[in-house]
């Protein structure tokens, strides 16, 4: 009879399975979900500060861009336009506009002022946009009436890009309203151009075609700008929530590690607990790398790892309760446990005061070591002082509880080997 052994699924096939997420119901990138998530976590105010810092960084980029455009434009006027008298008005107005806009937007760098008065961001942005629009239109009107130049807007697209991409306007609605008002101003300016120009005024059909193209041009650009602001707000909120989650998880992890360390240090000596922690982490790392490799070398690692340390100069204190056997026969279990808890609690507090490390207690036996955690030349003195304190403590317990109880205490100084043995239940 042939018996075929059923093949067990390989490690790779069990580990790398298909993702069971249903992406048709994914809402992580929906703006409504992100807004409700911020409100749910009470992060709306923190998000506003985060958004303000990002807008200030964008404003810094805009300063550099605006300065670059201003320098290139003034340089082109000075190098390529002759006679230079024709562009004096342009140079003066652009220099004034650059100075005014720079001063207005620089107010947003005062974080305390802006955080107290959020309307300052919108107010300075609106004034800066209108100053740039007024400068552009006034220059064109000046040259039209003085030199009969055509009325062509030069910075309409630049102003719209500035509103949607760089100006510190937190609200998408406010940015859209400002950009729409700027578009309406330029459309009205274009209508005026068609009316005053005799060539286009005689042809109503051609004028209507040009006006329709201009309106659709601004409409399309505003729609694109609104879409950009929506996507930017979505990405900023998503990144803010991701960063908040990362910080919270890191905080939780630190607290968990601290609690783990405190728990392990309360069970084992710190100098022994640290190698054991490292050993456990190495085992986890090896198990994640591959279970077959971990199991094949696991026995050899267990044999090699021994948390043994040599301490050449320490003092051991060993204490034994006198009449403990008599107490076990005369007291109830609950009363005996309360007596030992009261007694050993006092001993632990005294050991901490004298920098003596308690190793363990078993029934009526309590022993500890001085100079183990940290080398101490006064380890013998500390151990003897602890012994005297323990005698005083047991006398108090004897008086408070009316018990015939006493201590035998032994002290010895020298060198020792300290460590932890075992795998499943460690023993120090």
Description:
The chain has 428 residues and is an alpha+beta fold. The protein has 15 helices and four strands. The protein has a four-stranded antiparallel sheet with strand order 2-3-1-4. A hairpin with a 2-residue loop joins strand 2 and strand 3. Helix 6 packs parallel to helix 8 and helix 11 runs antiparallel to helix 12. The longest helix has 64 residues.
Record the SSE blueprint.
Elements: H1 11-15, H2 31-40, H3 44-80, H4 88-106, H5 111-116, H6 119-147, H7 156-166, H8 172-196, H9 198-201, H10 204-267, H11 270-289, H12 291-304, E1 307-322, H13 324-330, H14 333-353, E2 356-362, E3 365-370, H15 379-401, E4 406-420
Antiparallel strand pairs: 1-3, 1-4, 2-3
Helix pairs in contact: 2-10, 3-4, 4-6, 6-7, 6-8, 7-8, 7-10, 8-10, 11-12, 14-15
